[in-house]
Design goal:
With 278 residues, this protein is of the alpha/beta class. 40% of the residues lie in helices and 14% in strands. The protein is globular and about 45 Å long. Helix 1 packs parallel to helix 2 and helix 3 runs parallel beside helix 4. The chain is built from 9 helices and 10 strands. It has one domain: TIM Barrel (Alpha-Beta Barrel).
Length: 278
C-alpha cells in the first residue's frame, strides 16, 4: 500500500521528504511553493538536487505536487484566469525540475457564468499549458463535492474535459473520497464501490485513475459539503473505508488530507488506515 500525507515544504523543499520518512509514509503530496500567493520564487538548485536525492534514497514515491488553491481555471475574470493559466504552466515546469511525475489541480468555479463556459476555459488552459511546457509531467484533475458553481463534481464532467485535451497521455484523475461522497456517489458498501468503479471504467477507463485523496466526510451522501473529516469519524465511516481499502481504490497511491486538530494526529490517521486495510 502506498500511503502518505500532504506535507509542508517549510524550511527547504527537500525537507518534505524527511517529514514523510519520519511519519512512515511511502508516498507524499506537497505544494511546490507558497500556496497563498500568486508569485513564486525560482527553485534553488541545491534544494532541487537534495530533494531528488532524498526521494531516490527513501523510496518515497510517487510524489505529487498540488497547485495552489488560488487557481481558478474556470474563472470568467480575465486577470484570475490568466494568473491561473500561467500558474499551471509554472507548476508543470517546477514538477519537471523536481522530477515529480504528477501535478494535481482543482478545476475551479464558473462563478455563475455556466458550466459550458467553465469547460471551455479549463480545456483551453490545459491545452495551452501542455503546449508551452513539454515535459513528461501528467496533470491530475481532482473531482469536487458539487458546491455551487464548482466544476468537475461528476465523472461525466471530468470525462468531458479529458476527452478534449489534445495530449491525452498527460491527463488523469485524482479521486477525493470526501468530495465523491458529498457529490452523491456512495462509498460505504462493497456493492456501491463496485458500482462506482464500473461506472468510472465505462466512462474513462480505470487506468486513468492515478491517485486517491483519502478523506472522510463531515457532510452526508449528496450533501455537496466540502468538509474533510478524520478517517472513520465521518459519514463514510470505518465500514466505508474498510471497503474502499479492499477495493481497486486501495491499490492506488493514497494521500490523506484530514483535519489538523486535537482529536487525532496525522500519524494516528495513518495508523487507522493501516488497521482498516488488514
Amino acid at each position: 500500500m502506498r500511503l502518505g500525507l500532504h506535507l509542508s515544504i517549510v524550511g527547504s523543499i527537500d525537507k518534505v521528504v524527511d517529514r514523510a520518512v519520519e511519519r512512515e509514509c511511502n508516498t507524499l503530496q506537497m505544494f511546490s511553493r507558497n500556496p497563498r500567493g500568486w508569485r513564486s520564487k525560482n527553485l534553488d538548485s541545491g534544494e532541487v538536487e537534495s530533494f531528488r536525492f532524498k526521494v531516490r534514497e527513501s523510496g518515497v514515491c510517487p510524489v505529487f505536487v498540488h497547485t495552489p488553491y488560488l487557481f481558478n481555471l474556470a474563472s470568467p475574470k480575465h486577470e484570475v484566469y490568466q494568473k491561473s493559466s500561467e500558474g499551471l504552466k509554472e507548476e508543470l515546469r517546477r514538477a519537471g525540475e523536481l522530477g515529480v511525475p504528477f501535478v494535481v489541480t482543482h478545476l475551479g468555479s464558473h462563478l455563475k457564468h455556466g458550466k459550458m463556459k467553465g469547460f471551455e476555459r479549463i480545456i483551453d488552459a490545459i491545452n495551452e499549458s501542455f503546449s508551452a511546457v513539454e515535459n513528461n509531467v501528467a496533470l491530475l484533475l481532482e473531482n469536487t463535492a458539487g458546491t455551487r458553481n464548482s466544476m468537475g463534481s461528476s465523472f461525466e464532467d471530468i470525462k468531458y474535459i479529458t476527452s478534449r485535451v489534445r495530449d491525452k497521455g498527460r491527463v488523469g484523475v485524482c479521486l477525493d473520497t470526501c468530495h465523491t461522497f458529498a457529490a452523491g456517489y456512495d462509498l460505504v458498501s462493497k456493492g456501491a464501490i463496485e458500482h462506482l468503479l464500473k461506472r468510472f471504467d465505462e466512462l474513462m477507463g480505470l487506468e486513468e485513475l492515478k491517485l486517491v485523496h483519502l478523506n472522510d466526510s463531515k457532510g452526508g451522501l449528496g450533501s455537496k459539503i466540502d468538509r474533510h473529516e478524520h478517517i472513520g469519524m465521518g459519514k463514510i465511516g470505518a465500514r466505508g473505508f474498510r471497503n474502499i481499502l479492499h477495493s481497486r481504490l486501495g491499490q492506488l497511491p493514497l494521500i490523506l488530507e484530514t483535519p489538523l486538530d486535537e482529536r487525532r494526529s496525522d500519524v494516528e490517521n495513518l495508523r487507522r488506515v493501516r488497521e482498516l486495510s488488514e
